Amino acid sequence: MKNKGRKIYKTKEKNYYGKTPMGKFLSGALTVLLIGGIGFLGYSLAEPIINYSKKTGDDQLPVSDTTNNTDLMQNTTIAVDSVVVPENTNLEVYKAASLTPADLSDTARLQTALQNINVNVGYEYVSVPLKIAGGELYYASAVSEAQLCGAVKSTLTLSEITAAIRTAGYRPVAEISLLRDSLAPQTYPDMAYTTTGDGSRWIDNDAESGGKPWISPYSDRAVTYLNAISDEVAAADFDKVICADVIFPKFRESDLAILDERLSSSERYLTLTSLVNSLYGKFMNGGTAMILEVSAVDILQENYDVIQPWLLDVNTVVLDIDLDELGTAVAAGGTVYEFTGTVSDKVSKLIGLVEYKLEGFNVIVRISGQTADPNELVKAKDIIGNYGYNSFMIG
To answer: How do beta strands 329-332 and 240-244 pair?
Structure first.
């Protein structure tokens, strides 16, 4: 466009440093455009250069924006809260009736026992004692050591047992007592605790008073024996298996003085947790869930080395309240605890004394006792809810 304004003539002798308003405006506009153009060009060139020179993993650099960090923390909190399990609450409500060893003597006795289960209680599982405290086996085990030491007391096969339970409308559970075994070490001395002097078998009392040996978790042969029995159970059609009596005998100071020094170690519990974890892996690989059983009386008397929540793979325990074992009083730690009143009274008091030892586990309360009224045992299950438990076994 032509400038129709007044013409200005310049001479060589005179310079003009000032600008008209229009000139200032045009100069400023050109400056802004120039700066903007340089900035755009620089940004356009910088991005490919940065992307070219950037190292692998730079995309994972920490986020510095406060808002983003806050959102990330909130998301993390939500993720953690979504998997928190309420204390003392089982992921599954477990209701089981437990049969006796006599019920496994033959097919007829087993079927009769299944028919006599109280259907009004709402049992879903039936638990059978395949290996009991003392070492006897109530199924037709093919393990040679079990046969040779006279432990096998039944001709029923595991498949016959599980089939009968499922036919009756229940889900089968196996019970195995591990270390409270005196039969196997009677025949195989290298399975027992032995003295450091002459290598003789240790027994839990004087021979005249009926003292018996125990299977030792430090014995390779004993562990092999327990694994062989567990292999048979893992291969059978059981939904769950309960492993009990994972304990050391109640050694006296005089006993510890003549036994392996590892039994006096503060870390002896590692032997028990290792045994439990190895069996846990075996059963889980076979598709059978494993549960650890602990005696409430043993816990009260501080005999619970295996209870190590941070070391055990198993996360569910059966708290066994055996009224025959409990009696009317228990001496523990210099204190005598009396248990009087109804079955419910005794169960409630004992749970209150030991429940804190089971923090971190899912808990199933087992109420048993051959001398107690079966109806009272069933009635006592109603009070366990006061402690946050909702799973139970009767018998």
So the answer is: unpaired
CA distance 355 to 299: 9
CA gap 248, 221 in Å, rounded: 17
Cα 234 → chain centroid:
18
For the cut 80, the answer to whether the pLDDT of residue 391 exceeds it is yes
Q: And the tokens for 355?
A: 């429940």
Bridge partner list, 330: 337
Quote the CA–CA distance of 297 and 347 in Å, as a whole number.
Answer: 11
How is 345-371 classified by DSSP, letter by letter?
HHHHHHHHHHGGGGTTSEEEEEEE-TT
Tokens of 376: 């009272």
Amino acid at 248: F
How are the residues of the chain apportioned to helix, strand and coil, as percentages rounded to the nearest 5? 45, 15, 40
Tokens (6 digits) for 292: 């650890």
- Please write the tens of the pLDDT for every residue from 97-144: 999 999 999 999 999 999 999 999 999 999 999 999 999 999 999 999
d(Cα 241, Cα 146) in Å, to the nearest integer?
19
- pTM score, whole prediction: 0.77
Q: How far apart are the first and last CA of the chain?
A: 108
CA distance 233 to 164: 16
The pLDDT of residue 26 is 44
| Six-digit token string for 79 | 């993720």
Q: What tens digit of pLDDT does each residue of 152-176 get?
A: 999 999 999 999 999 999 999 999 9
Helix (H/G/I), strand (E/B), else coil: 271: helix
Cross-strand pairs, 152: 137
Of 207, 153, 203, 152, the C-alpha closest to 182 is 203
Evaluate whether 185 touches 249 at the Cβ level (below 8 Å): no
Measured CA to CA, the distance from residue 80 to residue 355 in angstroms comes to: 26
**Rounded to 5°, angle at Cα 247 from 244 and 248:** 155
